[in-house]
Structure prediction request, 369 residues.
Amino acid sequence: MWTFENPVRISFGAGSLDMIGELVRGRSYCLITYNEPIFFDISGRIAVAAGPAALTIDNVIPNPDFDMLAESCTLFVGAQPVPEVIVALGGGSVIDAAKVVASGGNGFDAVKRYLEDGSGEDTLTSIPIIAIPTTAGTGSEVTSWGSVWDTDAGRKYSLSRRSLYATDALIDPELMVGMPRELTISTALDALSHSLESIWNVNGNPVSTNYAVNAATEILDILPELVDDLGNLDLRVRIARAATFAGLAFSNTKTALAHSISYPITLRHGTPHGFACSFSLPMVMRSVIGASDTCDAGLRRIFGSDLPAGADRLEEFLVNLGVSVDKADYGIDDGEWRELIKSAMTGERGRNFIGSQERVTECLGAAKR
Ligand code: NAD
Prediction:
Protein backbone atom coordinates (compact mmCIF):
# COMPACT_ATOMS: atom_id res chain seq x y z
CA MET A 1 0.00 0.00 0.00
CA TRP A 2 1.25 3.48 -0.75
CA THR A 3 -0.07 7.01 -1.39
CA PHE A 4 1.48 9.89 -3.28
CA GLU A 5 0.07 13.39 -3.08
CA ASN A 6 1.21 16.88 -4.04
CA PRO A 7 -1.29 19.70 -4.48
CA VAL A 8 1.01 22.35 -6.00
CA ARG A 9 0.12 23.48 -9.52
CA ILE A 10 3.40 23.72 -11.44
CA SER A 11 3.89 26.08 -14.40
CA PHE A 12 7.30 25.52 -15.94
CA GLY A 13 9.25 27.01 -18.81
CA ALA A 14 11.69 29.65 -19.97
CA GLY A 15 9.88 33.00 -19.92
CA SER A 16 7.02 31.70 -17.75
CA LEU A 17 7.52 34.59 -15.28
CA ASP A 18 5.21 36.62 -17.52
CA MET A 19 2.35 34.33 -16.41
CA ILE A 20 2.44 35.86 -12.93
CA GLY A 21 -0.44 38.24 -13.75
CA GLU A 22 -2.70 35.26 -14.50
CA LEU A 23 -1.77 33.64 -11.20
CA VAL A 24 -2.18 36.75 -9.02
CA ARG A 25 -5.56 37.45 -10.71
CA GLY A 26 -5.89 41.04 -9.49
CA ARG A 27 -5.46 40.13 -5.81
CA SER A 28 -3.37 42.38 -3.60
CA TYR A 29 0.00 40.70 -3.02
CA CYS A 30 3.03 40.89 -0.79
CA LEU A 31 6.32 40.32 -2.60
CA ILE A 32 8.99 38.60 -0.51
CA THR A 33 12.51 38.63 -1.90
CA TYR A 34 16.17 39.58 -1.25
CA ASN A 35 17.40 43.16 -1.18
CA GLU A 36 19.77 42.60 -4.12
CA PRO A 37 19.91 44.41 -7.50
CA ILE A 38 19.06 41.48 -9.80
CA PHE A 39 15.87 40.94 -7.85
CA PHE A 40 14.85 44.61 -8.30
CA ASP A 41 14.69 43.99 -12.06
CA ILE A 42 12.66 40.80 -11.73
CA SER A 43 10.34 42.50 -9.22
CA GLY A 44 9.82 45.22 -11.83
CA ARG A 45 8.73 42.61 -14.39
CA ILE A 46 6.31 41.13 -11.85
CA ALA A 47 4.85 44.61 -11.23
CA VAL A 48 4.28 45.06 -14.98
CA ALA A 49 2.49 41.71 -15.30
CA ALA A 50 0.57 41.65 -11.99
CA GLY A 51 0.40 45.29 -10.92
CA PRO A 52 2.46 46.84 -8.14
CA ALA A 53 2.95 44.89 -4.92
CA ALA A 54 0.84 46.11 -1.98
CA LEU A 55 3.85 45.40 0.23
CA THR A 56 7.45 44.35 -0.39
CA ILE A 57 9.43 42.50 2.27
CA ASP A 58 13.04 42.31 1.14
CA ASN A 59 14.96 41.58 4.32
CA VAL A 60 15.61 37.92 3.47
CA ILE A 61 19.10 36.57 4.17
CA PRO A 62 20.40 33.02 3.54
CA ASN A 63 19.12 30.59 6.19
CA PRO A 64 16.39 32.81 7.75
CA ASP A 65 16.70 33.01 11.52
CA PHE A 66 14.39 34.06 14.35
CA ASP A 67 15.41 37.75 14.27
CA MET A 68 15.00 38.13 10.52
CA LEU A 69 11.69 36.28 10.46
CA ALA A 70 10.32 38.29 13.40
CA GLU A 71 11.04 41.45 11.40
CA SER A 72 9.38 40.01 8.26
CA CYS A 73 6.24 39.05 10.22
CA THR A 74 6.05 42.50 11.84
CA LEU A 75 6.20 44.15 8.43
CA PHE A 76 3.46 41.86 7.11
CA VAL A 77 1.14 42.29 10.10
CA GLY A 78 1.63 46.07 9.93
CA ALA A 79 0.29 46.29 6.37
CA GLN A 80 -3.25 47.66 6.09
CA PRO A 81 -5.10 45.90 4.64
CA VAL A 82 -3.14 42.67 4.89
CA PRO A 83 -2.32 41.42 1.34
CA GLU A 84 -4.38 38.50 0.01
CA VAL A 85 -1.52 36.47 -1.43
CA ILE A 86 2.27 36.18 -1.01
CA VAL A 87 4.57 36.06 -4.03
CA ALA A 88 7.93 34.54 -3.00
CA LEU A 89 10.72 35.39 -5.46
CA GLY A 90 14.03 33.73 -4.59
CA GLY A 91 15.72 30.56 -3.42
CA GLY A 92 14.81 28.31 -0.52
CA SER A 93 15.48 31.04 2.03
CA VAL A 94 12.88 33.33 0.46
CA ILE A 95 10.25 30.63 -0.07
CA ASP A 96 10.74 29.33 3.48
CA ALA A 97 10.51 32.90 4.83
CA ALA A 98 7.23 33.28 2.91
CA LYS A 99 5.92 30.14 4.63
CA VAL A 100 6.74 31.61 8.04
CA VAL A 101 5.15 34.97 7.17
CA ALA A 102 2.02 33.15 5.91
CA SER A 103 1.84 31.38 9.28
CA GLY A 104 2.72 34.45 11.36
CA GLY A 105 -0.31 36.69 10.71
CA ASN A 106 -0.66 36.93 14.50
CA GLY A 107 3.01 37.76 14.92
CA PHE A 108 6.19 35.69 14.85
CA ASP A 109 5.91 34.72 18.54
CA ALA A 110 3.04 32.38 17.67
CA VAL A 111 5.24 30.62 15.08
CA LYS A 112 8.19 30.48 17.47
CA ARG A 113 6.06 28.91 20.21
CA TYR A 114 4.73 26.34 17.77
CA LEU A 115 8.25 25.47 16.60
CA GLU A 116 9.63 25.23 20.11
CA ASP A 117 6.95 23.16 21.83
CA GLY A 118 4.28 22.36 19.23
CA SER A 119 1.63 24.43 21.01
CA GLY A 120 -0.80 27.04 19.66
CA GLU A 121 -1.31 25.68 16.15
CA ASP A 122 -4.75 27.33 16.16
CA THR A 123 -3.05 30.75 16.40
CA LEU A 124 -1.14 30.23 13.14
CA THR A 125 -2.54 31.76 9.96
CA SER A 126 -2.64 30.58 6.34
CA ILE A 127 -2.19 32.77 3.27
CA PRO A 128 -1.87 31.50 -0.32
CA ILE A 129 1.70 31.50 -1.64
CA ILE A 130 2.87 31.71 -5.24
CA ALA A 131 6.48 30.49 -5.27
CA ILE A 132 8.91 31.62 -7.95
CA PRO A 133 12.21 29.80 -7.30
CA THR A 134 15.38 31.47 -8.57
CA THR A 135 17.64 28.57 -7.59
CA ALA A 136 17.34 24.97 -8.79
CA GLY A 137 17.79 23.01 -5.62
CA THR A 138 15.68 23.21 -2.49
CA GLY A 139 12.33 22.14 -3.95
CA SER A 140 10.65 24.36 -1.35
CA GLU A 141 8.17 25.45 -4.03
CA VAL A 142 6.64 21.95 -3.89
CA THR A 143 7.06 21.04 -0.20
CA SER A 144 4.91 21.83 2.82
CA TRP A 145 7.68 22.79 5.19
CA GLY A 146 10.24 25.50 5.71
CA SER A 147 13.60 25.60 7.49
CA VAL A 148 13.87 28.06 10.38
CA TRP A 149 17.30 28.60 11.88
CA ASP A 150 17.81 29.62 15.51
CA THR A 151 21.40 30.71 15.02
CA ASP A 152 21.90 31.90 18.61
CA ALA A 153 20.83 28.59 20.14
CA GLY A 154 22.46 26.53 17.35
CA ARG A 155 19.19 24.84 16.36
CA LYS A 156 17.35 24.24 13.10
CA TYR A 157 13.58 23.78 13.07
CA SER A 158 11.22 22.67 10.34
CA LEU A 159 7.88 24.46 10.18
CA SER A 160 5.64 21.79 8.73
CA ARG A 161 1.98 22.39 7.88
CA ARG A 162 -0.15 21.17 5.02
CA SER A 163 -1.27 24.75 4.31
CA LEU A 164 2.34 25.67 3.50
CA TYR A 165 2.17 24.04 0.10
CA ALA A 166 2.30 26.88 -2.42
CA THR A 167 -0.85 27.11 -4.51
CA ASP A 168 1.40 27.65 -7.53
CA ALA A 169 5.06 27.08 -8.36
CA LEU A 170 6.08 29.27 -11.28
CA ILE A 171 9.42 27.86 -12.41
CA ASP A 172 11.25 29.95 -14.99
CA PRO A 173 14.78 28.63 -15.68
CA GLU A 174 15.69 31.95 -17.35
CA LEU A 175 15.78 33.46 -13.83
CA MET A 176 18.55 30.99 -12.93
CA VAL A 177 20.92 31.75 -15.80
CA GLY A 178 22.86 34.34 -13.75
CA MET A 179 23.58 32.02 -10.85
CA PRO A 180 27.32 31.89 -10.12
CA ARG A 181 29.24 28.60 -10.30
CA GLU A 182 29.35 27.82 -6.58
CA LEU A 183 25.64 28.52 -6.03
CA THR A 184 24.80 26.44 -9.12
CA ILE A 185 26.76 23.52 -7.68
CA SER A 186 25.54 23.76 -4.08
CA THR A 187 21.88 24.04 -5.07
CA ALA A 188 22.06 21.21 -7.63
CA LEU A 189 23.75 19.00 -5.01
CA ASP A 190 20.92 19.82 -2.60
CA ALA A 191 18.53 18.43 -5.25
CA LEU A 192 20.74 15.37 -5.78
CA SER A 193 20.66 14.79 -2.03
CA HIS A 194 16.84 15.10 -2.00
CA SER A 195 16.63 12.44 -4.71
CA LEU A 196 18.91 9.90 -3.07
CA GLU A 197 17.54 10.57 0.41
CA SER A 198 14.01 9.85 -0.83
CA ILE A 199 15.19 6.47 -2.14
CA TRP A 200 16.93 5.25 1.06
CA ASN A 201 13.87 6.33 3.00
CA VAL A 202 11.26 4.43 5.03
CA ASN A 203 8.59 6.62 3.37
CA GLY A 204 9.66 5.88 -0.22
CA ASN A 205 7.07 4.72 -2.74
CA PRO A 206 7.12 3.93 -6.49
CA VAL A 207 6.15 7.47 -7.53
CA SER A 208 8.70 9.22 -5.31
CA THR A 209 11.40 6.78 -6.45
CA ASN A 210 10.53 7.37 -10.10
CA TYR A 211 10.89 11.13 -9.68
CA ALA A 212 14.10 10.61 -7.70
CA VAL A 213 15.72 8.30 -10.27
CA ASN A 214 14.92 10.74 -13.06
CA ALA A 215 16.25 13.72 -11.08
CA ALA A 216 19.48 12.09 -9.89
CA THR A 217 20.29 10.68 -13.35
CA GLU A 218 19.86 14.12 -14.90
CA ILE A 219 21.92 15.93 -12.26
CA LEU A 220 24.80 13.43 -12.49
CA ASP A 221 24.68 13.72 -16.25
CA ILE A 222 24.47 17.49 -16.76
CA LEU A 223 25.94 19.27 -13.74
CA PRO A 224 29.58 18.78 -14.87
CA GLU A 225 28.63 20.29 -18.24
CA LEU A 226 26.60 23.14 -16.74
CA VAL A 227 29.38 24.36 -14.43
CA ASP A 228 31.51 25.08 -17.52
CA ASP A 229 28.62 26.62 -19.46
CA LEU A 230 26.64 28.60 -16.88
CA GLY A 231 24.77 30.67 -19.46
CA ASN A 232 23.38 27.64 -21.32
CA LEU A 233 19.59 27.93 -21.07
CA ASP A 234 18.94 24.34 -22.22
CA LEU A 235 21.06 23.00 -19.37
CA ARG A 236 19.39 25.41 -16.92
CA VAL A 237 16.00 24.08 -18.07
CA ARG A 238 17.13 20.50 -17.46
CA ILE A 239 18.61 21.16 -14.03
CA ALA A 240 15.53 23.16 -12.97
CA ARG A 241 13.30 20.27 -14.09
CA ALA A 242 15.49 17.78 -12.22
CA ALA A 243 15.33 19.90 -9.04
CA THR A 244 11.53 20.05 -9.38
CA PHE A 245 11.34 16.26 -9.70
CA ALA A 246 13.65 15.86 -6.70
CA GLY A 247 11.36 18.24 -4.77
CA LEU A 248 8.30 16.19 -5.71
CA ALA A 249 10.10 13.02 -4.61
CA PHE A 250 11.04 14.22 -1.14
CA SER A 251 7.79 16.20 -0.69
CA ASN A 252 6.29 12.78 0.11
CA THR A 253 9.19 11.14 1.96
CA LYS A 254 11.11 13.95 3.68
CA THR A 255 14.88 13.64 3.80
CA ALA A 256 17.08 11.19 5.72
CA LEU A 257 20.57 10.72 7.16
CA ALA A 258 22.71 13.02 4.99
CA HIS A 259 20.38 15.93 5.78
CA SER A 260 20.23 15.03 9.45
CA ILE A 261 24.05 15.19 9.57
CA SER A 262 24.09 18.49 7.65
CA TYR A 263 22.18 20.89 9.91
CA PRO A 264 24.71 21.09 12.78
CA ILE A 265 27.48 21.39 10.18
CA THR A 266 25.82 24.46 8.66
CA LEU A 267 25.13 25.94 12.09
CA ARG A 268 28.58 25.31 13.58
CA HIS A 269 30.84 25.63 10.54
CA GLY A 270 28.83 27.87 8.19
CA THR A 271 28.90 25.29 5.37
CA PRO A 272 26.25 26.19 2.75
CA HIS A 273 23.27 23.83 2.95
CA GLY A 274 23.84 22.21 -0.48
CA PHE A 275 27.41 21.19 0.35
CA ALA A 276 26.63 20.18 3.94
CA CYS A 277 23.87 17.78 2.84
CA SER A 278 25.77 16.22 -0.06
CA PHE A 279 29.43 15.61 0.80
CA SER A 280 28.49 12.56 2.89
CA LEU A 281 26.29 10.99 0.16
CA PRO A 282 28.91 8.46 -1.08
CA MET A 283 29.50 7.26 2.50
CA VAL A 284 25.77 7.06 3.23
CA MET A 285 25.25 5.15 -0.02
CA ARG A 286 27.97 2.62 0.85
CA SER A 287 26.31 2.04 4.21
CA VAL A 288 22.87 1.37 2.76
CA ILE A 289 23.77 -1.04 -0.07
CA GLY A 290 22.07 -4.36 0.63
CA ALA A 291 19.72 -2.93 3.29
CA SER A 292 16.60 -3.27 1.12
CA ASP A 293 15.87 -4.83 -2.29
CA THR A 294 13.63 -1.90 -3.23
CA CYS A 295 16.28 0.67 -2.37
CA ASP A 296 18.97 -1.31 -4.19
CA ALA A 297 16.72 -1.53 -7.26
CA GLY A 298 16.16 2.25 -7.24
CA LEU A 299 19.89 2.94 -6.87
CA ARG A 300 20.71 0.47 -9.69
CA ARG A 301 18.48 2.47 -12.03
CA ILE A 302 20.81 5.43 -11.42
CA PHE A 303 24.21 3.85 -10.89
CA GLY A 304 24.05 0.52 -12.76
CA SER A 305 24.31 -2.99 -11.37
CA ASP A 306 27.56 -2.58 -9.40
CA LEU A 307 26.45 -0.35 -6.51
CA PRO A 308 29.79 -0.17 -4.65
CA ALA A 309 31.36 1.05 -7.92
CA GLY A 310 28.42 3.49 -8.22
CA ALA A 311 29.26 4.94 -4.80
CA ASP A 312 32.85 5.38 -5.94
CA ARG A 313 31.61 7.17 -9.08
CA LEU A 314 29.42 9.42 -6.94
CA GLU A 315 32.48 10.34 -4.88
CA GLU A 316 34.47 11.04 -8.05
CA PHE A 317 31.61 13.20 -9.38
CA LEU A 318 31.73 15.37 -6.24
CA VAL A 319 35.51 15.61 -6.16
CA ASN A 320 35.61 16.58 -9.86
CA LEU A 321 33.22 19.45 -9.05
CA GLY A 322 35.67 20.60 -6.39
CA VAL A 323 33.51 19.31 -3.51
CA SER A 324 35.59 17.57 -0.88
CA VAL A 325 34.21 14.41 0.71
CA ASP A 326 36.75 14.75 3.54
CA LYS A 327 35.05 15.90 6.75
CA ALA A 328 38.27 17.62 7.87
CA ASP A 329 37.85 20.11 5.00
CA TYR A 330 34.62 21.24 6.69
CA GLY A 331 36.41 21.72 10.01
CA ILE A 332 35.09 18.48 11.54
CA ASP A 333 37.41 16.28 13.61
CA ASP A 334 36.92 12.58 14.41
CA GLY A 335 35.22 13.27 17.76
CA GLU A 336 32.69 15.69 16.33
CA TRP A 337 32.05 13.36 13.37
CA ARG A 338 31.21 10.42 15.65
CA GLU A 339 28.90 12.63 17.71
CA LEU A 340 27.23 14.02 14.56
CA ILE A 341 26.52 10.55 13.19
CA LYS A 342 25.19 9.26 16.50
CA SER A 343 22.77 12.14 16.97
CA ALA A 344 21.86 12.21 13.26
CA MET A 345 20.71 8.57 13.35
CA THR A 346 18.24 9.31 16.14
CA GLY A 347 17.15 12.73 14.83
CA GLU A 348 13.79 13.20 13.09
CA ARG A 349 15.25 12.96 9.56
CA GLY A 350 17.75 10.25 10.53
CA ARG A 351 14.87 7.99 11.59
CA ASN A 352 13.64 8.06 7.97
CA PHE A 353 16.86 6.34 6.90
CA ILE A 354 16.47 2.64 6.11
CA GLY A 355 20.07 1.68 6.95
CA SER A 356 21.27 0.11 10.17
CA GLN A 357 23.22 1.86 12.92
CA GLU A 358 25.87 -0.84 12.67
CA ARG A 359 26.57 -0.33 8.95
CA VAL A 360 26.48 3.44 9.30
CA THR A 361 29.05 3.29 12.06
CA GLU A 362 31.19 0.97 9.94
CA CYS A 363 30.99 3.08 6.76
CA LEU A 364 30.84 6.60 8.15
CA GLY A 365 32.27 6.25 11.63
CA ALA A 366 35.33 4.37 10.48
CA ALA A 367 35.75 6.31 7.26
CA LYS A 368 39.18 7.87 7.05
CA ARG A 369 37.82 10.66 4.93
P1 NAD B 1 19.24 30.93 -0.66
O1 NAD B 1 17.81 31.23 -0.90
O2 NAD B 1 19.72 30.86 0.75
O3 NAD B 1 20.10 32.00 -1.46
C1 NAD B 1 21.51 32.01 -1.35
C2 NAD B 1 22.05 33.18 -2.17
O4 NAD B 1 21.77 32.95 -3.54
C3 NAD B 1 21.39 34.52 -1.83
O5 NAD B 1 22.41 35.42 -1.47
C4 NAD B 1 20.72 34.95 -3.11
O6 NAD B 1 20.82 36.30 -3.36
C5 NAD B 1 21.45 34.18 -4.19
N1 NAD B 1 20.62 33.87 -5.35
C6 NAD B 1 19.43 33.25 -5.36
N2 NAD B 1 18.98 33.12 -6.62
C7 NAD B 1 19.91 33.67 -7.43
C8 NAD B 1 20.02 33.85 -8.84
N3 NAD B 1 19.07 33.41 -9.69
N4 NAD B 1 21.11 34.48 -9.32
C9 NAD B 1 22.08 34.92 -8.50
N5 NAD B 1 22.04 34.79 -7.15
C10 NAD B 1 20.95 34.16 -6.62
O7 NAD B 1 19.69 29.58 -1.39
P2 NAD B 1 18.98 28.15 -1.51
O8 NAD B 1 20.05 27.15 -1.56
O9 NAD B 1 17.98 28.18 -2.60
O10 NAD B 1 18.16 27.97 -0.14
C11 NAD B 1 18.77 27.45 1.02
C12 NAD B 1 17.77 27.43 2.15
O11 NAD B 1 16.66 26.60 1.78
C13 NAD B 1 18.33 26.86 3.44
O12 NAD B 1 17.89 27.63 4.54
C14 NAD B 1 17.75 25.46 3.50
O13 NAD B 1 17.61 24.97 4.80
C15 NAD B 1 16.39 25.69 2.84
N6 NAD B 1 15.77 24.47 2.28
C16 NAD B 1 14.43 24.35 2.35
C17 NAD B 1 13.80 23.23 1.83
C18 NAD B 1 12.30 23.09 1.92
O14 NAD B 1 11.74 22.09 1.46
N7 NAD B 1 11.60 24.03 2.49
C19 NAD B 1 14.56 22.22 1.23
C20 NAD B 1 15.93 22.39 1.15
C21 NAD B 1 16.54 23.52 1.67
